[in-house]
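User: Hey, my collaborator sent me this sequence without any context and asked if I could get a structure. I don't really work with proteins. Can you help?
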Amino acid sequence: MAAPAPATGNGKEVVVVEEEEEEVTCDELEEQMEMLRQLDIGDGREEEAAPSWRREDVATTSSAAANRRVVPAFGGVAMTPGRIWAADSNAVAGPPSPPAWTPRPHHHGGMLLLRDRHARGGQVLHLGSHELQVPGSSSISGRGAAASARATTRSEGVVTMIRSCRSWKSCQLVRNAIVPWVGRRSKMQSLVTDSDRLRIVQACIQCFPPDIAKVLVDAVVENCVEIACHLNGLLFLQNCLGHMTLEEKYKFFTQVSINSVYLAKHHSGSYIVQDVLEFGHPFHLEIIAACFQTHYVDLTRQKYSSRVVEKCLKQFGVLEQYLIVCELVLDLDHFRDLVTDEVANYVISTALLACTVPIRDILANAIISLQDINQHHPHCLKIFDILSKLGYI
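Assistant: No problem. I've predicted the 3D structure and written it out in structure-token form, which is a compact way to encode the shape of the chain:
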């Protein structure tokens, strides 16, 4: 009897396997996972990373509490996602169903069969996808995984393996091997210093169904403040945001908002706060506005946080803009220093452009009323140029 024809779709060949051979494939995948576990961070490496974990560029502040990380409790809190994520496909689409297994042909010209798994590592690949057409030397075999672990770019083979996972069980096996990397805060602190491991975790979040990747996403959300304080971690968070569900995004943005004063003073953390200001729900903007109150003068003087204050002036409503301007001009002696400050003068210039009458009038009159201000001072030129264009002088 002739062998059944392989499954096809849009003219692309697909590797097909018998249902009973899935167990064989998963057994081989378990062996590969053992090699993956060997990439885990050892105790010595954790101790090495610990001293450098807090070497971050955070500006000082007179209020010690403002620099303290706050850990909100989300248990029992009903999360209401904002409307900005309504177009998120992850929110409306449920987890994909496992692919249906069809009998494989015993003979097929040019078709890669599972009896050749010793040459290909026994992986179940969709050959129609160009990115998965990897050469035999990079196959997901024990030998290939060991070579990948020794290579400088050892994460490449692991990421390819993650992308090649097609069955529910294989995705779970990979996920279970990754979980120890994010299981404890100390592990996460070491993880953010290793770009290879971050790529592997990111590939799992991007490629796996939401219910399988949930444990990884939850760990990322819980530790997002620490992750955002590292450049690798910042890029990792920004890449993972598009693959989170609405509720996960809401929790993530809430974490960042509550810790916004601390993050705003950090060279990479300030960018994630600006992302929340631009894309967050109005509820998150209210949290940030409440946290920033009484800190605007301090934030305006510092390099990284001053950019966050500029973003606030552009994104906040009229009431919040009024509170910012009033706090800046409240003490004229301090305000004089802000106008001539090499960093704060950019915030004053942005406020003049972003605010409308009568808030802009309050700020402009406060600047003009200052005595002994040199309008040709290098840090004042832009401010007085804007005042001139707006007709105040």
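In plain terms: The chain has a mean pLDDT of 72. You can pass these tokens on to your collaborator as they are.
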